[in-house]
Amino acid sequence: MNPIQLYKKAYNGLSRNSWYLSLVVLINRSGTMVLPFMTIYCTQALNFTIVQAGIIMALFGVGSITGAFIGGKITDKYGFYDVQVGSLISAGFLFIVLGYQTTFISICCCVYVLSVCNDAFRPANSTAIAAYSTAENKTRSYSLNRLAVNLGWSFGGALGGFLAAHNYHLLFWVDGCTNLMSGLLLLKIMPRSNYKKPHTDVTHPDAKSSPYKDTVYLVFILLTTLFATCFFQTFTIQPVFYKTQWHLNEQVIGGMMALNGLLVAFVEMVLISGLEGKRHPLRYICMGVILTGIALTMVNWLPPSVLVATLVIIVISFGEMFAMPFMNSFWVVRTNDHNRGQYAALYTMSWSTAQILAPIIGSQIIALSGYTTLWWAMAVVCGVSATGFFFLYKLRFQHQLVTITNS
User: Fold this and answer.
1) Does residue 338 sit in helix, strand or coil?
2) I need a labelling partner for 229 at 20 to 30 A (CA). Which of 3, 166, 199, 210 fits?
3) Average pLDDT over residues 87-111
4) Percentage helix, strand, coil for the chain under 3-state DSSP, each rounded to 5
5) What is the pLDDT of residues 198-207, one digit of tens each?
6) From CA 344, how far away is CA 205, in angstroms rounded?
7) What residues have CB less than 8 Å from 367, skipping those under 6 apart?
């Protein structure tokens, strides 16, 4: 099968609404530039201390957890459509307001409220993707959404660097306006008058009334948080390692981050198209977690070079592509129309928690024992996570007559 046929097969059969949702996410993420440059803005433009900047960044994480929890609850009660629109438009205005705050307290308050509004979108959007996909293409539907996220992130980061070099306030305006544009586009291409909250009676036999009563899912969330804490080292600690230990310049490091986004954007859909439905999701998740663990240790046993750093990001990218799409497909099939938002919220909260823990744990290990210990420690944590996923599959799902992927 030639490459054109592979891509055609990968994208074939996805619903029009799945494409619409991904377009909304692409525009939204193309304006994501405040968060990556917030620490530099606070310390360089506002003359805050690094401690104050750290507190502000932590509030992004805390607000994200709060927003995901509230967003999931509201989604189950009122439906995903209104939550998505409300989140995008409110966050759009708040990004612009944040750009005019100059005191530490006012920025802290605005950041927290902004993050709550902004991240209420994520469980609602995940629920919407599930509603507009089928059992046969649900993993590819989430991969399409991830493609939009990665393309938007790559573009937003590059544009943000250009704008930051000229005027930091432009970051807040562009981020805010893309949020507003995304909300208005959603209203235009998927009008409120045409929206009907999906109702399906098919429920997976393992589904519970609440994710907090679903023991298997809680174990899954714990293992996901362990993996995510390791994965986020790639974007928090590893760039500093390359700069200070391997003496790579910012342009090379930025290029490797862009390579991650491009690989995921152009490879994942074809990869998932060939894998979806052939094995249980937990088996692919195990493979992805193991690849990530191996990649993080490669800097310990391979010589410092741009080639090795590039190889590391390639292996991590494939680990991401094996693990994350199937994590989404795992939790979706355990839900129904009345609790899907709460399941999505807990999954989002897992990643938000890891986003807070990753730099804290990473920096502490470095301070106590150095970078080499950090990379070995992250490999061990990945090993624990992969082992947990493997035993979850062996003990709970291996002998089921109907696998999750075909439910």
Assistant:
1) coil
2) 210
3) 94
4) 80, 0, 20
5) 554 444 545 5
6) 18
7) none
Q: At the fourth CATH level, which superfamily is domain 11-192? A: MFS general substrate transporter like domains (1.20.1250.20)
The structure tokens 């805050």 sit at: 48
Q: Are 126 and 209 in contact (CB under 8 A)?
A: no
Tell me, what DSSP letter sits at residue 44?
A: I
Rounded to whole angstroms, how far apart are CA atoms 144 and 5?
A: 17
- Going from the C-alpha of 58 to that of each of 131, 313, 345, 355, 364, the distances in angstroms are 32, 26, 19, 9, 16
The one-letter amino acid code at 1 reads: M
- Please state the φ and ψ torsions of residue 204, each to the nearest 5 degrees: -60, 140
Query: For the whole model, what pTM was predicted?
Result: 0.80
The encoded tokens of residue 100 equal 């005019």
Give which of 369, 1, 6, 397 is closest to 205, Cα–Cα.
Answer: 397
CATH class of 210-406: mainly alpha
Asked whether this chain's domains 11-192 and 210-406 adopt the same fold, the reply is yes
Token pair for 192: 């409120």
For residue 120, the surrounding DSSP H or E stretch is: none
Q: Is residue 234 a contact partner of residue 359, using CB atoms and an 8 Å limit?
A: no
Q: For residue 320, what are the CA distances in angstroms to 28, 57, 157, 301, 327?
A: 22, 24, 20, 22, 10
Domain boundaries, the chain: 11-192, 210-406
- Span 180-198, average pLDDT: 79
Residue 237: φ, ψ to 5°: -95, -40
Q: Contact 322/285 with Cβ under 8 angstroms?
A: yes
Q: Residue 392: pLDDT above 70? A: yes
Report the C-alpha gap between 273 and 176 in whole angstroms.
35
